[in-house]
Amino acid sequence: MAATQREDYYAVLEVEYDADATAIRTSYLRLAKTRHPDKQPGNSHATGRFQLLEAAYYTLSDPQLRAKYDRSRPRSENRGPWGNPSAASPCPAPTPTKKTRPRKRPAEQPEEPPPKRPWWHTPLGRLRRSLDIQQQWRDWAQDAYDFRHKLVETIQADVDTLA
Question: What pTM was estimated for this model as a whole?
Answer without folding.
Answer: 0.44
